[in-house]
Amino acid sequence: MLDVYAPVAPLFILAILVGGIILILSRLMGPSKPHARKVATYESGMRPIGPAVRRLPVQFHRVGMLFILFDIEVIFFIPWALVFRDLGFYGLAVMGVFFYVLLIGLAYEWFAGGLEWEQ
Amino acid sequence: MFEVPVFDDLNAWAALPIILLALGTSILLVADLFIPEDRKRLTASLALGGVTVSLVVAMLQALGVEIGEQGAAFADMFIADQFTYVVNVIALSSAFIGILVSYDYFERAEVKRGEYYSLLLFSTMGAMLMGASRNLVMIFVALELLSIPLYLLSAFRKPIAASEESALKYFLLGAFSSGFLVYGITLLYGATGTFDIDGIWTAAVEIIDGEISRQFTLIAGFGLVIVGLGFKVGAVPFHGWQPDVYQGAPTPVTAFMSVTAKTGGFAAMLRVLVAGIPVVVAEDIAMWQDTIQVIALLTLVLGNFVAIMQDELKRMLAYSSIAHAGYLLIAVAAGGTEGIGDQAAQSALIYLLAYTFTNIGAFAVVVAMEHVDYSGTKLNDLKGLSNTNPMLAAVMALFMFSLTGIPGTAGFVGKWFVFKAAIDADLVLLAVVGVLTSVVSAFYYLRVVVNMYMEPGTPETQPETPSLRWALGITAAGTLILGILPYFMTELAEGVTVALIR
């Protein structure tokens, strides 16, 4: 059963070899001028030093939560799209129910002011 | 490729009460945002109207009017039988009275959030679905639908620390217990290869007849499901959250959840245990019967004895509600004997119906006593109530008699059926302990009556408003009528079978 994975083994070996050679070559031949900024931990260009617990705008969490909710719910439409023709009107009606629930959530969120950044 | 389902197969009409309630609640949720803060009475009235429509349909179904076929619906996820219908009636009645109790309380406390009613109705739907599930995944989803709004409702008196604390405690422990339930469900799936309760029955018959080693996963699964559901109903080793949450939550919420969460929890417990695990172990008893017996004994003894020590009315009622979970557990345990399953389910539903009116009524009296800052509910604050407010004292006395189980009240009928089921199932010890702890409970229930009628004092009560008066009237009438004419309850429960229609 493991035979299926046999072709992966050469790939592993090759990857380790190539990666190793490049690292060793650049260490041996490249110029080395260390600098405080250069050796610091990389953090997307921000200053890497500071407290881990920081104040974040609370709205960020609300938007994040709503995004995840709706994002996951929208994903459910994709399987339906795949079998749309086979399911016919039945599928449309069932997804209509699902969409109704989604819509009520969106309407509530919108009218209750969940989408306003400043309150 | 695959067969496209047809609408007629869904048998959706059988679920009409829940569908109506879901439609109404979702519209109410959005409509409430357009109702100005000083007119939230409109939201409450709309919610009440929605529940009434749904309750009428549920009543018709329970009384035998054919709305949708009895049997499986929604691709075997949902089961519509007399059990489902009666659970619907109980859950909707508690929602109806719960809304009546709530309005004045939140008006007085100046909490002007109309979401309250939507959340309450969502929770009701959860309880209704728990009785109607024939699939473990459905039971889990229904349980979450029941619990999550309750966590939110507990926090509705937000600036008051006790309310926030109770919500957080309930949420954390509730989430934990949901974890137990899900783990139990996965183990059951691992043992039997299906989520369908009927399928579990079929698979479990083979497993129980087979080797011991195969039974382990099944037993562990059922154990964890009992833990998860036991938490929701407040059975003893898992009751720790209940006093704090019941005391800290706003009183109308306590009234509602003390009944609805129990209805849902016991409905699911009866379905999963009695219908899901066959009674084929030695001497015609189910493998889980001893477990439930021990839990019931602990619940009865601890609930009743600790309630004696309380000097706060809400906390006392919280422990009393633990004790009542014990009486319901007697019924569940009785269901583990061959041939007693249906009778046990009937007695549990009768008990729940009686308990619904009585317990919400008792909490409604607390609402009428309680000051805005949560004070005024000590047992001593009741002293002399019969002088200042004779009507309130009279209904409170009625509810206390009913909770004790004195003949002529609904509570007596409930207890009678539960003990009868226990004796028919040869669980004499459990019945004896049940009766003895009822005697113990008379001490703390009658102390309330003594305080009201025989002690001097001039307690303050809140001005009674129409909706609270209606709530007290309905619950008192229900307690009396069901006590004197138990025919109404027995008629409803008559056709209840816990086994799934195959």
Brief summary:
With 119 residues, chain A is mostly helical.
Strands of the widest sheet of chain B, in order across it, are 1-2
Q: pLDDT average of chain B, as an integer?
A: 89
Please state the oligomeric state of the protein chains shown. Answer: heterodimer
State which percent range the strand residues of chain B make up.
Answer: under 5%
Order of helices and strands of chain B: HHHEEHHHHHHHHHHHHHHHHH
Describe this structure in words.
The complex is a heterodimer of chains A (119) and B (502). Chain A has 119 residues and is mainly α. Chain A has helices at 8-29, 36-39, 58-75, 77-82, 84-111. Chain A folds into two domains: 2-39; 58-111, no CATH class. Chain B has helices spanning 7-10, 16-31, 41-62, 82-108, 115-132, 136-154, 161-192, 197-209, 212-233, 241-248, 251-276, 289-308, 313-334, 341-369, 385-388, 390-404, 410-424, 428-454, 466-484, 487-493; strands at residues 71-73, 78-80. The model of chain B has no long low-confidence stretch (mean pLDDT 89). Helix content of chain B is 73%, strand content 1%. In chain B, strands 1-2 form a two-stranded antiparallel ribbon. Chain B has one domain (7-493). Chains A and B meet through helix 5 of A and helix 2 of B.
Q: What are the defining features of this structure?
A:
heterodimer, A: 119 residues, mainly alpha, 2 domains, 5 helices, flat, B: 502 residues, two-stranded antiparallel sheet, 20 helices, 2 strands, 73% helix, globular
Write the layout of secondary structure elements.
The complex is a heterodimer of chains A (119) and B (502).
Chain A: H1 8-29, H2 36-39, H3 58-75, H4 77-82, H5 84-111
Chain B: H1 7-10, H2 16-31, H3 41-62, E1 71-73, E2 78-80, H4 82-108, H5 115-132, H6 136-154, H7 161-192, H8 197-209, H9 212-233, H10 241-248, H11 251-276, H12 289-308, H13 313-334, H14 341-369, H15 385-388, H16 390-404, H17 410-424, H18 428-454, H19 466-484, H20 487-493
Antiparallel strand pairs in B: 1-2
